[in-house]
Each structure stands twice: as structure tokens, then as C-alpha cells.
């Protein structure tokens, strides 16, 4: 794992115009593991110009050739799987097994899915006396978060390349080394110069410059709702398309006839995964009052098993944020049944797996995204009450429903104001659209719906 001291622009590693650097810190031991350039507006401008210059040739490249480059990219990522996992573990703090299976493994599959879609997608179709063309939208500014550093990059860059767009990527400043490995894989895959460009930098500097740049046609951002609003405002002023995947406060609804032990154990695992740093985590568990205390007991026991199984959160800033929410929950009257605000280790940005009971819907911990290993358990009286609580936040990203009667679970899920619902622990599907309702975002990622975000439509009448 060696950090590049340049930016990847126009097919080569180049020195940044800005002299500033970002220090990359291992959150498990607080040691500096690398330094990367902190790009400024001039660097962003150079990258956008390179993407703009490469756009005509790449957009005219036959879909089959674009698919071949994506297949080569998938293979290049697969060859680096161990290095990717080790790098994510070093800069994010994820346990190595999780990094290998999820942080490295899932994006390889997603890259392959877009190779298949690029080859098979109907970029032209007949509608009556018209030929409808689905054309690349242009230059994409992709701004990605730190919590799934490679997956979020692949979920944006792969469909953009499949569509015929060119890309400037600004990854999160906490996890830039994984983005550099991705750039190496792009180069090895033979993607033409300028089609993909990487600028490492700070969000308020490089990210803002990218979002504001007049040479960018679409801004695809994953991160907080607050920053998403800012990007939406900037893009709106320029009548520029945005795709926003934002926050979540997802409900895990356990209906009265569900297998309670399974639903609770899977629900706790979902929240503790990736140290709680997952936008779609089921951070609100809703249980009927008749089974509530048993669910609380099961959840507290399950959470206790994660004490030495989860990694740290990404930074000291994030640790302080999560601990602040835990203190807020206690202050507002929630009952702490596992964990707490005290750090479980002297070194590193660790947070104890935490479970709150007696949470009411209006409490801060039931309304705001915490982004840490914190679960709130809320009681409900009947299904209408459960639905009211489940839909009672500004978010609508994901959720879950458990019931012995699958038809009843599906009926409940259809009424949830959220973009994705797992029924009885349904498996992740990389081809299913992912994205939110309400303030959880605009647009979709993954599969054909994710590809469609990077296309615009033209009709020819005959």
C-alpha cells in the first residue's frame, strides 16, 4: 500500500497545482499511513478539461468496446482484491474479513454487471414513427463517501463509462488510497486517457469546485443530506442534473407473528455491520408491545457479542459525533441496555455497540442519522401505529419487514415510504435499483436504473 503523490488526470499521474496535502490516518491506531494531494480549483479545472476533451471519442465508442473495457476493469480489480481489502482495512478500519467479502468483493461484481449491461442495453429503440436514442449525458462529476470507498466509486463510475460518459472523481478525503487503487485498475484496463480522472481533495474545496464547474453536466453525490442540499442548489442554478444518494433512518418492522429471535439477531447484525457506517442500516427496530421486552433482551445480548468484532469508526470527528448522539439519547430519557458513550479502547476511534430501549418517535436518536453502531428499539400498538412510526422521519432510503405471513409483510412493505425494503432478510441484489424517497435522495444506483441516470433521451421522427 503506497500512496501516489499526484493526481490521475488524462491517463497519467501528475503533480497537483495545489501544494496542500491530506494525511491519511488509520482509525484503529491513529497512525498516519499516507499522504495524498489536496487538489484545488485549478487541478479540478484541468481534470474537467481532460474529461471534456475525451468525451467525443468515448461517447462514440461502440457499446461492445465500452463493455470490453469494463470487463477488463473488473478483472483488474479482481487481481487487486487482497490489496484493496488491506487498504480499506487500513484507512477505514473495517475488519479484514468484511473488507475482503464486501468492500472488495461486491464492487468487483458490480463492475461486471455493468460490463454486461453496456453490451446489452438498448441505446436505440423504436416508438411508433420515432427512433429514440439514449445518449450519454456528458462529463460526470462523481463525489463519493468514505463508508464504502470502492463500492461507491464503482456504483458511479462503472455506469457512467457504460453510458459513454467521461468522469472526474473526487473521493472522500478519509479514504483516498482505495480510490488510487481504482485509478490504477482503470489504467491497466486500457480505458482511454481522459475518460476517467481522479482528484483527491477536501469537499469544501475540490468537491465544491467540481460541483460548480460549468464543464460538468451531471453531479453524482453520495453523502449527507445537508451537503446534498448544497450540491442540489449549486446544480439547480446551472440547470445541471444531479443524482443524490443521501441519509437514512431505516425502520426494521417486526410484525407480531415473525420469528422474533431471527428478526432481532439479523437486525442487530445489520446495524453493527461496518461499525454502523451504512446509510441504509436498519437503525430503528419496531416491535409490538406484547413482545417488546423480549426483543430488548435479545437485542442487548446480540449487541454484546459485537464488542470485539467491529472496527473503529472512520475518524476522531465521527467518534465524537456518535458518542454525542449516545449522550443525547440518555439525556432525552431513552433506556440504555447495551454499550454507552465511553470508548471501549484507549487507542483508536472505537465506539461501543449500543442499544437503546424505550425510544419514542420524536427523540433525536429516532429521527437523525447517527452513522455509528447505535440501535433504537421502539414499541408499537398495531400495524397502523407501526406504519406511522416507520414513515415518520424525513428519510426514506431502506427498511425491513419480518412476518411469518409473507403476503402480510409484502403488503406492509408496499405502504412504506422508502426506496428499498428487505422481506424476511432478503439478500442484497446488485441489479436492483438503490436510492431513496423524501430527503434520502434523488435518482437510483445499480442495475439498469443506475445506468439510466447517465443517459439523456433524443427522439428522431420519421
Automatic annotation (TrEMBL):
CDD domains: ALDH_CddD_SSP0762 (cd07138). One of its GO terms (molecular function) is oxidoreductase activity, acting on the aldehyde or oxo group of donors, NAD or NADP as acceptor. The keyword Transmembrane helix does not apply. It comes from the Bacteria. Residues 13-459 form the Aldehyde dehydrogenase domain. Coiled coil: none annotated. Keywords: Oxidoreductase. The keyword Oxidoreductase applies. The active site is at 245. Belongs to the aldehyde dehydrogenase family. This is Aldehyde dehydrogenase family protein. It comes from Streptomyces actinomycinicus.
